[in-house]
Amino acid sequence: MKKLLPISISFLMIVPTVFAQKKETVELQRDVALLQDQMRSMQRSMDEKLATLTVMIQQTLDSANKANTAVAVLEAGLRDKLKDQEAKLVVPVTNVGAKVDSFSEDMKGLRGSVDDVNAKMNKMQAQIIDLANAVKTLAAPPPPPPAAISPSASQAPTGPPPGTSAESLYNNAMRDRLAGNADLALAGFNDFLKYFSGTDLAPNSQYYVGELFYGKGDMDAALRAFDAVLEKYPDNNKTPDALFMKGKVLVKMSERDEAAKQFRELRKRFPTHDLAAKAAGELRALGLSPAGTPSGSKKKK
211 with 276, same domain? Predict the structure, then answer.
């Protein structure tokens, strides 16, 4: 009996412990079951959301494919329209280009014809001058006997040398000028002025004399030559050139006020001439406006 008492006591102590562990196991199983239920709910939610996202992606892809198809159709339509417009414009543009080329060729031909006419007119003018000189020579009284000619009279020129014509003299001088033979050109133009000063080409000769002196750096002689053009031949085709070059000579001679007068006179008398714009540039270079007002910062002493 005494032996059973400790065993009974031990049993009674173990039983509550076993019951406590069983209760904890049941609670743990309940928690695991609850957790599994929550996991299943989350899985169902994720599946539903994934299905919805898949549908949305498919719809987006369908919309993108439709947009690409629309863009391709629009691009094809634009390409076809561009080709059609190009086909319609190529022929007219080609025709216009051909007409412009033809017009340019016609203008070149017309310009050449005008140059030929001018050359023939100059030649005819020189021939008329030669004929007039020949008539004057024939109409002049015969020269006195050699014994009656005084030394001073024998040295005075009576006309151009035999065989010298206005045309040949002027053309030779021009040829020397264009070739850069300034001294020969000066001699030729001076001879022309000596024998044919009353002809239509005299203003040209006088102007080229001034131009040649300007090129040689002889400003005094150039100024006298340009003054002769303006004084002896006031109304001719070289008047604007003479005014412009006289102004440039005066600039070289530091005569700014006198130079400005020549440039302004050129602009006043020949406002549409090509040299009028160049005269305005020369005035601005002097620190003056074309109208005569100083420009301030560009004023020179």
Answer: yes
